[in-house]
Each structure stands twice: as structure tokens, then as C-alpha cells.
Amino acid sequence: MSAAGAGFLAGNAGDPGDDSAEAGFARDMATHHAQAVEMSMLAVQRSGREDLRTLALDMGLTQQAQIGMMRAWLDTWNLSPTSTAAPMAWMNDDTGMNHEDMTAEPAPDGDRAAMPGMATPQELDALRQQQGAAFDSSFVDLMVRHHNGGIQMVDAVLARGPDPLVRDLATSMKRGQQSEITALEQIKADLVETP
């Protein structure tokens, strides 16, 4: 391995540390995205709507690529892709924002997921059993909630003045997810209007 390559793998003195907001965000958002990818691939397979299948495929591919980017950051920073810290622990600091303050709605059964907006295991099981319009409606509701939770996570990391790589991707995530929420809400309106 060249000296330049060895330096790349070892990270730099100014890189985010293991307990930084950047590392916590990268780990937690990769987990958050993985659930969105799973739900999106279910929609690609099960939805009867071409517009929803197309949107879901784009969401799944985009978020899988972003997972790769976040894991590459952790590798570059010489950090593990996992942590023993509780999910969202990086949000509990002195910025005035913390995990407990997030406005993610609980699932209908009252259970809360570990991260804002995530579907519970019970909700995912129910989604896997659905077909047709019932699937489409449930998917849209879950994904809008999921995206809103992801935007809360993005806002939290942006409030911490992160590393420019993290800032740029987080800003792009927010813009993309807001656009996808608009598209999902239009599909939901169409589903309500269609008997």
C-alpha cells in the first residue's frame, strides 16, 4: 500500500471522532435509510401503480447510494460502522435539540421506533402482508412519516455545524426527501379519489 493510501485509511487529525454528531448521524441515518430501501423494494414488487413503483425504485436506489457514502465516511475517519451508543445518542448535547424532543409520531399501536419516523416491526410485518390499494396506501403513509423523521435527523445534524461532507449530503437529503413527500402526498390524494 502506498503512503498516500495508508494515510487515507488512517483518517486525519481533524476528522470527526467516534462520539461526534457526524459519526452518529452517519451510523443512524444508514440504519434509517436501510429501512426505507426495504420498504421501497417492497413497493417496486407489490404496487399496482407505475408512478409509485418508479418513485419507490428511485428512492431505494438513492438511499442505498447514500448508505454507501456514509459508510465510506466512517471508513475514511477510521471509525466502526456500528457503535455501542444508543440510537440517536449524538442528539443529546448542548445545542438545545435532543432525541426526546423529536416530534415523530408513535405507531398506531403506541410503540415508538428507535429513530424518528421509522416503522415498527409490527408495521413492517403488516406491510409485507398487504396487496393492491391497501399496500399502496400503507406504503405512502409509512414513507411520508419515515421521510419526515429523516428530515428531523438532518435538521439536527445541520444545527451542529457538521463537517462539510456531512453538511452537503444532509442538505441534499432534505431537499430530495421534501420533494418525494410532495410526490407521495399526490399519490395518496389519487388513491383517496380512486374508488
Automatic annotation (TrEMBL):
Residues 1-23 are annotated as: Disordered. InterPro entries: DUF305_CopM-like (IPR005183), Ferritin-like (IPR012347). Residues 22-187 form the DUF305 domain. It holds the Pfam family DUF305. It comes from the Bacteria. Residues 1-13 have a biased composition (Low complexity). PANTHER family: SLL0788 PROTEIN (PTHR36933). This is DUF305 domain-containing protein. The lineage of its organism: Bacteria, Bacillati, Actinomycetota, Actinomycetes, Micromonosporales.
